[in-house]
Each structure stands twice: as structure tokens, then as C-alpha cells.
Amino acid sequence: MASGKGYEGPGDYIDHHLSNLKVDFSNFGTVHLDTVIMGWVLGAVVFGILFLISRKATATGVPGKAQAFFELLYDFVDTQIKDIFHGDRKFIVSLGITVFVWILAMNAMKFLPVDFIAKGFEAVGVGYWKPVATADINTTLALSLSVIFLVIVFSFKAKGFRGYMHELFCTPFGGFPLLWPFNFLFQLIELVSKPLSLALRLYGNMYAGEIIFLLISLLSIAGWYGVISGSVLHAAWAIFHILVVPLQAFIFMMLTAVYLALAHESH
Amino acid sequence: MNINMTLLLQAMGFAIFIYFTARFVMPPLANAIETRRRQIADGLAEAEKGKASLVISQKEADKIIAEAKAKATDIVAQAEKQRNATIEASKVEAKTAGEREKASAQAEIDQLSVKAKEELRDRVADLAVAGAQRILKREINPQVHGDLLSQLKAEL
Hints:
The complex is a heterodimer of chains A (267) and B (156). By secondary structure, chain A is mainly alpha-helical. Chain A has one domain (10-264). Chain A contains eight helices and two strands; from the N terminus they run H-E-E-H-H-H-H-H-H-H. In chain A, helix 4 runs antiparallel to helix 8 (224-264). Residues 1-5 of chain A have low confidence and may be disordered. Chain B has one domain. The interface between A and B is large, with 46 and 34 residues.
């Protein structure tokens, strides 16, 4: 809990916990090392586990519990995507599982008490460490821009260059040449708003959740009453996040599938 | 907002994870699920076929049983008939044998009685001759009186 020791006040405490570990690589740029390490390590762990489960998957005999769990996840994602996406959905399902599992793993770091991590890293001399990689706009934008990149690739693949250009310039208002700029403007707004809404929704949810956790932690400034009520509130907010964390991962996955399905559909 | 090179690194990570999942993680699991699904479908189809063939075999079995029953009834009836015939035949044979036996016995009896009569006749003739001898107190010459004696024998 925040004792105020080491921090100049509540504002400094929150600021400290919400700041990334910035490292300047002179000719490469600034990197949030905590975000990148959390993201890559968590991804390597969860996809490594799934890989090990999948490698031992058997069609005959009784599947193990780990395989049953993975099949449950696969079936869940596959069922959702089957309703939206018509066509060969092998890649979309793989993408959906990647998105869902990775975001879920990164979001799940919220369940760790904020100060355990901060104090732990301070003990080894790292002053800043934000454990929730999705509470960093860089991560969510990286995800959503990658998705939009895939949307554009899918559009070209499904409709061809001419077809996609026709869609960009001749819809929604019509093919009259004077309307081309307006059509293109509309399509451009759509193309920009999709990744922005994706990224900001996830980022906002996670960032706001972190702030609430920190404010709850600050209650302990008020002494023992604060510590006790703060613990209760912390537990309640964490329980609420059992819903929020998978929900946000699920929404991101579903919207990814929807955008790709729209790109795949020919008019 | 603080957008920097982190975005590029995270996007790289994302791309690597997508590739890894699509290339290495999903195919074995999807294969296993697909194989199992096919096996279950095959099993169900097989069961359906088995059920149909069971109905057919049941019908066939019923037919065979009915045929066998009819045949068995036939055989029993035939056996009954044959038995009756055999009994009848044995009865007749027994009767014939008995009669034959009886006839041969009768013949023997007749023969014996004829023989006995003859013997008796001889003896009576002798007795009569002897009686007559005694009465006449003289000997009758059998050669002389042979005719008379034979006549007497025939009369007995």
C-alpha cells in the first residue's frame, strides 16, 4: 500500500505508477521497455504453452485436460467467427485466437496488486514498471494498425485492385466522377476510425482500470480504516475486472473478425 | 499520449505471434478435431447401417424360422404316418405269423392224431384178434383171414 514514503504525494504516486519505463535508444527512438518485455514474454509463454498442447493433440482416444481446454477455446473462437466470416476461415480463426489470447494475457496482469510489482522492481533498481502492456497506447495501436493493415490486404485479395479502388472511390455516394473525392473522404474516415476506435477502447478501459486501482490504493493514506476499506474495494474492483479483462479481449477479437469479414465481402 | 518506437516493436511481436499461431499452433489441433469429427461421423453412419442390416437380418431370420417350423411340422406328420403304417404292417405280419404257426401246429396235431388213430386201430385190431382167438379158442390164420381183418380195421 502507498505509505507515501518515496513519493512526494498522491499525484506523484499515481504518476509514478502510470509511467512507462522509457529507454532512449539514440538512433532508434524511445522504447517503453516494460511494455515490450511484458508483451513479448507473455506472448512467448502463452503461445508456447498452446504450442506444446497442440503438438501432443490426439484425435484418437481420450484427449487430455489441457487439450480439452484448448479445444474449448478453439471452438469458442471458431463458432463466433463462423457466424461472421463466410469462406476459408483458417487464418481468421488463428488470428482471432492470437488476438484473444495475447490481449487476455496482457490484460490479466491487472490482477496482480499494483504495488507488489512496483515495489518489487524498485527493489532491483528499476524505478518505473507498468505491468499492463495494454494500458499503453503503443500496444493497442500496434494491434489495431496491424488489423487494419490486414483489412487492406484482404480487400485487395478479395476484390482485386480495380474492385477495391472502385469501392474506395465509388461508394457510398455513387460512381459520378465529381463524387469521387467525397466517396474517398468517407472511406478514409472509415479506415482511420476503425483502428482508432479499436485501440482507444482497449487502452481506455485498461488505463482507467489502472487509475481506479491506484486511487483505491491511495485510501490507505487515511490510516487503518483506509487500509481495510481499500482492501475490500480493491477486491471488488479486481472481481469486476474478471469480467472486464476477457470482455475487452473478446470485443477486440470480434471487431477484428467483423472488419476482416467486411473486407472479404464483395459488393 | 506517448507514441514511439514501442508501437513498432509491439506490432512486430504481434506479427510473429500471428505467424507462429497460424503456422505451428493451430494446424495440429485443427487436424485432431477434424479427424475426430470425421471418426464420429463415420461411427454414426456405421451404426445407422448396422441398425438397417439388423432389421434385414431379423426379417431373414424370421423367414428361416417360419420355414423350419413348417418343415418340422411336415416331418412330424410324415413320421406319424410312417409309424402308423409300420404298426399296421407289424400287426398284419404278426397275425400272419401267428396263423402260420397255428396252421403248422394244427397240421402236426392232425398228423399226430392220425398216427395215434392208426396205432390205436392196429392195437384194437390186435386186441380184437386176440379176443376172437380167445373166444374161438383157436388160431385164426392171419394170412387166411387177412381180408376179414383189413375190413374190420377199416370199419374202426
